[in-house]
Each structure stands twice: as structure tokens, then as C-alpha cells.
UniProtKB/TrEMBL annotation:
Biased composition range(s): Acidic residues: 88-100, 135-145
GO MF annotation list: ubiquitin binding
Protein name: Activating signal cointegrator 1 complex subunit 2
Organism: Champsocephalus gunnari
Region (Disordered): 83-235
InterPro entries xref list: ASCC2 (IPR052586)
PANTHER family linked to this entry: ACTIVATING SIGNAL COINTEGRATOR 1 COMPLEX SUBUNIT 2, ACTIVATING SIGNAL COINTEGRATOR 1 COMPLEX SUBUNIT 2 ASC-1 COMPLEX SUBUNIT P100
Top-level taxonomic group: Eukaryota
Biased composition (Basic and acidic residues): 161-183, 201-212
Record field: compositional bias (Low complexity): 190-199
GO biological process: regulation of DNA-templated transcription
């Protein structure tokens, strides 16, 4: 007779399983009794929408809370023996501004006279009458010497001086606006034959030849120049 090892029985699957619904009210593997009233198939047959809207139970529950806000009283006179809690006076008033409660921001009358004696009252500059901006005063100061130099005996000033001032104003305006001279027009006509051509004319012709018909021939001229520069096409 052969001696075979004793095989231990396998543990029950329900005892070793782990599930998020273990020991809940619907765990039929660990409970013998389950509330069947909470289990149904399909759409639950309960109260209709009309019955739900006609249910005024929540109104009765909140009625006592809103009755305290029905009457608005500015001043409540407490009778002897009454506590403020009966009228809800201990509640915090949210409309009260407590920004400056912790600091003394008001004026102190005890040191008011000494403060006024040290620092006399002055009208703010913005409230003074006849006040002009500083930049206007500076412009007036600059124009005064020019006006003083004018000879009032002359009916017409010196034209040379007027032209000089106009040129100075024009140069100043061009400097502020970033004046640029007009670009030189392209001159490709040149001079008559036998008189030679200027270097500017030669450069303008080369630019015109390089940029001629850049769209219709699909840039063939530029590519040909590129191949010619690399030695691929004999020149």
C-alpha cells in the first residue's frame, strides 16, 4: 500500500474573495436577510411628478425659520428679565463696516491747535485758480527772449532771419518724425550711344534684368544664373 500525502482541501472562494461591496446591505453571500423593498426591476413605481409637487412638507419645516424675518424692527426694547437671544440680537450684522474698528483714524481734538500752529493750511495746487501746466510756462520762457529781440520799429523782419527760423523748424520736425529722403528713381534709359553709361544705370539695368518676369517663367532666369555660377552651364 502506497503512502500518499494528505491533500488539504482548497479554501472556499467566498471566504477569500475581496470586493468593494462586501458586507453591504445587498451582499447575499454574507447576509441571510435582504430588504427586498429596495430591490425592483425596471422603472420604480413611486410618486408621480404631480404628487411630488403637491407635497408641502418641506414648507412646514421651513416656516418657523422664515417667520423670524417677517417683521423688521430697527430698535428692540428689552423688558426686564428678557435676554437678547430671544430676539436674535446676538447675530452678527453683516452690513456693519468694521474696517476701522481696530485703529484710531479719527481726529484728536486735544492736539488740533498745536498741529495747526505748526502746519498752516494751504490750498492744494490743483485747486488754485489761474494755475497753468509747467510745460506751458517753459515754452513761454523760451519764446520771451525771441520776442524781446524783435525790433518793433521794423514793419517787416529780416527775410534771411525768417528763412533761417523756418529751416530750423523744418529740420526739427523732420528729426522728430524720422524724415527720410526720397528714394532715387531707377534709371535704366541711360545716355545716348557713344557718351558712356553711368555706374548707376548699369546697376539698375542688372536689377531689372534679374527681376524681369519672375512669375511667368517660374524663376528660370534665377536658377540659370545659379547653375552658371556653379559651372554647370558654360557661359
Amino acid at each position: 500500500m502506497e503512502n500518499r500525502p494528505v491533500v488539504e482541501p482548497l479554501p472556499d472562494v467566498l471566504n477569500v474573495r475581496s470586493n468593494v461591496f462586501d458586507d453591504d446591505e445587498f451582499d447575499v453571500f454574507r447576509r441571510d436577510q435582504v430588504d427586498m423593498s429596495r430591490i425592483w426591476k425596471g422603472r420604480r413605481k413611486g410618486e408621480s411628478a404631480k404628487e411630488l409637487l403637491n407635497d408641502k412638507q418641506h414648507i412646514a419645516e421651513q416656516k418657523a425659520r422664515y417667520l423670524s424675518y417677517e417683521t423688521v424692527v430697527d430698535v428692540v426694547v428689552l423688558e426686564p428679565g428678557e435676554s437678547p437671544e430671544a430676539y436674535g440680537l446676538d447675530d452678527y450684522e453683516d452690513e456693519y463696516d468694521d474696517t476701522y474698528d481696530m485703529g484710531q483714524v479719527g481726529a484728536n481734538d486735544t492736539d488740533g491747535d498745536s498741529l495747526l500752529s505748526r502746519r498752516p493750511f494751504t490750498v492744494p495746487q490743483i485747486l488754485r485758480k489761474g494755475n497753468k501746466p509747467e510745460f506751458e510756462e517753459e515754452e513761454e520762457e523760451e519764446e520771451e527772449p525771441l520776442q524781446n529781440n524783435v525790433n518793433r520799429d521794423q514793419f517787416v523782419q529780416d527775410p534771411a532771419l525768417l528763412r533761417e527760423r523756418a529751416d530750423a523748424r523744418r529740420a526739427d520736425m523732420h528729426q522728430r518724425k524720422g524724415f527720410r529722403p526720397e528714394p532715387r528713381p531707377n534709371n535704366v534709359v541711360g545716355q545716348p550711344k557713344g557718351q558712356g553709361q553711368k555706374q548707376e544705370t548699369v546697376v539698375d539695368r542688372r536689377k531689372k534684368e534679374a527681376s524681369k518676369g519672375r512669375g511667368a517663367n517660374h524663376n528660370r532666369r534665377n536658377m540659370a544664373d545659379r547653375k552658371r555660377n556653379k559651372g554647370m552651364i558654360p557661359s
